[in-house]
Amino acid sequence: MSEQIQQESVSVATGETLVEVNQLRTYYGEGGIIESNPVKAVDGVDFEIKRGETLGLVGESGCGKTTLGRTLIQLEDATSGEVLFDGTDVTELSGTELKDWRRNSQMVFQDPESSLNDRMTVGEIIREPLDVHDWPTIGVVVDADVATTIEGNGVADARTTEGVRSDVTVTVRGGSVTDVETRDEMQLERDDVEVELRGDDPTTVRVKVTRSRDQIRRARVRELLDTVGLRPEHYYRYPHQFSGGQRQRVGIARALALEPEFVVLDEPVSALDVSVQAQILNLLEDLQDEFGLTYLFIAHDLSVVRHICDRVAVMYLGNVMELGETEELFANPKNPYTHALLSAIPEPDPTADRERVTLRGTPPSPRDPPTGCPFTTRCPMKIRPDKYQNMDADTWVAIEVFREVLRERERAEKSLTEQAKELLGMETRFSDIDEIKRELFGDIDLSREVEEHVDRAAEHVADNDEQGARRVLREEFGSICDDERPDDYVVSDTGRVSHCHRHMDEYTEPDEFVPYTER
Amino acid sequence: MPDVSSRPHREDVSIRQRIAENPGPALGWLAGALLLFALEAGAVVHFVTGLFGSPVELPTLLSRELIPNNGYQTPSGAWQETFLGLPAAYAWALRVVLVYAYSFVWMYWLWRGYLVFRENYRYADWTPRDDMIDRLRGHRWGQFGAIIVFAFVVMALFAPALGPTTVERTISNPYSHSIEYYNDQGQLENITVGSANLDSRSQGTPQQNVGPMQYDQFGRFHPFGTLPSGKDMFTFMASGARISLFIGLSAIIVSGLIAAAFALLTAYYKGLVDLGVVIVGDSIMSLPRLLFVILLTVVLSGTWIAEIYSGAVILALIFAGTGWPFLWRSVRGPAMQVSEQEWIDAAKSFGQKPRVTMRKHMAPYILGYLLVYASMSLGGIVIAVAGLSFLGLGINPPTPEWGRAVDIGQSYVTTASWHISFIPGVMIVLVVTAFNALGDGIRDAIDPQSETGEGEGNEAAAATGGGA
Ligand code: SF4
Predict the structure, then answer these.
(1) Which of A198, A371, A471, B320 maximizes the CB count within 10 A of its CB?
(2) Considering the entire predicted model, what is its pTM?
(3) Is A249 in the pocket of ligand 1 (CB under 6 A)?
(4) Surface of A (106-145) touching B: CB under 8 A
(5) All domains of chain B, ordered by start, with CATH?
(6) Cα–Cα distance for residue pair B41/A211, rounded to 1 Å
(7) Is the ipTM of this structure higher than 0.90?
(8) Which residues of chain B lie closer than 8 angstroms to A70, CB-CB?
């Protein structure tokens, strides 16, 4: 194996962008028969992934991270926006183009039980992508001192055909073949390739591969098994005969079969035993080094992300809230949501004096996300309207909780009997507004102005007009966080971005701000 | 840096090469199979040449010519013209035993073939199928079903060889054939089968009755007795088994294919496709099935297609057309379930064609369910066809059909000729039960979690077998 080919097969020009995502949106449930709000699983995200890096994607379950990953490899159709892969917008591809592109990006799935068809042998499973793409197309490079054209069955000129690597290199000097090199992944040896020269100018180089495609594919599968730490004899075993970790290795081998550049890892270790997790993570890292892979690593386990990812994107409700280099982001989170998320994991270093922010409530429904900042309903650092700048923290939190309760009530399904009761003016579980008010504001001294608005809202609720109540509160206590989508602000020298109004000059930066719940 | 580890396996060989390398076991098996085939080759040649003109006769082991049971008894008690001079009953019994023994040896040989493949030529030392077979081996109820079904299928396949006489001789053309017997005066007399039948009728009185396992006065043996018309009932039943099996199998195969195709399509594409099939299927299912079938039989009765195989083909098509929604409903759930598996996404992610994904990644998982429900519905179709004949519809007389025997014998149930309704009735029950038992067995074999269960299995039988 010559030095030059070796380099080519693992050429990683880091720093160059492989995947670029612009204003990507993926909505579900549109265009159905019944008109309803679509689920906005991914709601306008921008980021890019550099060649050879691992980008982590973290967030609570249901934040849209898996959908985002699936959209990137075109398992879901994007609603709008673009996914540029090496400059090509893959959301526009279809038919053969899409199929050809698919070999570039693969996915390792979360559940090794479900990701392997257990009626097929491991060999058949790993081989399937090869069969689908009629692999291999053998790329030939001729290094000659005369002009040449290449000819042969299942053979393509690697210099002119896109997506074909230099699998066979033929050196021609003075009208005869002086050297033939083969690339390892192609499962070819020197004897398997016959080269013939014809004519003078241009010389036709006929390359004939004597090994059958079938044999080449099977050998490739065996090699892949070896690559992921299984034994070649496992070819004829069935998934049933393997442990979870081994099955995940099979899934990885299948993803690598077509030599993709980009692999989406969808929580690849979350279904595995802790003892096995580290092995699989190490394997993934080794493979990345060996083949120059680019990963999108989807996870909810932050310690895993910190271990394996170069950069991290933090997702909430279909939006990327903060994105930056892993260490920096973990050590010094900028976005209020990242703050909250990180403080939820136990600090490995007990002396670190990070405040523990506990998040209250649940994320809003992705069918009906807030108009302003996605985090606004739960943000412990939310910007307050000017006139309430000096309100004490307890009152503010109580008002925020009140608003959240109303939002939840509006969203909650009312059963038929409850609707009937409501119409008849009877007591329902939705009508205990006084009790709620007492519970939230009972111990708090409200200023006259605040009390007036709270009461007005409560009256609306008593009339079963939750929407009106919410409007009253929003008009009075709402701020820029409720009204405007924050921009992405660059918050560090390394280009970290955060999605929060607090990075504007007129507000206190999140990391200097003490959350209301801490006061 | 050549990868050493994968080299020893470098040359995988195809099954043909594997056999070429170690031909012993395969050749041994093949020799046995050829020998078995040779014994009956005459019948196959007869059948195939019969399709293109006049059939070629070759000596065949299990034929009525080689082991004849039609003869006559001399006044001294000796038998003439039967096999080795055996009494007609023994000659017939010998043929039956040989036919079943032969079929059984075939079954065994096929099983041996599978074992030979498994031990000598298969690369995998274990497959999920092995477990299923093991579970089926321990399933007594399923085996009971399998044995009865086997007996039924053999009866249908070998119908011409099994009967003491043939449909042609005793049912369709009795006056063109004749038999010899010693009359009361002790003389050898020639009489047409038709006339003989008139004297061997089962009419309910002890004087006019030929019961099961009895000879009539012409020395003809009737294992199941005779019909009121004097025709041999065993011959009638064997030939009826053929037609029932034909209708049942073809109806179930056609509706199974439709059901599987729709289940895969709706599970893969979901949405509107699913909705469309649900509407069509539910509309068909909401029709009262038996009435609808009767209506179709009557409406289509004058057409050319109703003439093929005495109306069996049209019946099969009608049952397939009205039956697929039931099968589809029962596999839709499993199909939906398997469509949620991540391996379907994986197949999409590397660009597998939908058609191949459905075939490779979904179909194997619904095939088992389909088999279960198909074998259970098959019993339902057998009943329904019998039910139609009972009502005087369906298969055109005089082509034998079990239901017609039940109908004919109805008025003799409490008399000496009880066998006319009773035997076919019991056989219908037995066959239907057996198909259900087999279905149970298959279900437990494919699904290790399920107990020898009631529940859904019975529901399916009720849903599909409720036709008649
Ligand atoms: S924009 Fe407002 S609500 Fe959103 S994270 Fe920043 S401070 Fe919190």
Answers:
(1) B320
(2) 0.83
(3) no
(4) 106-107, 109-111, 114-121, 128-129, 132-133
(5) 10-66+85-125 (no CATH), 168-231 (no CATH), 234-467 (1.10.3720.10)
(6) 43
(7) no
(8) 345
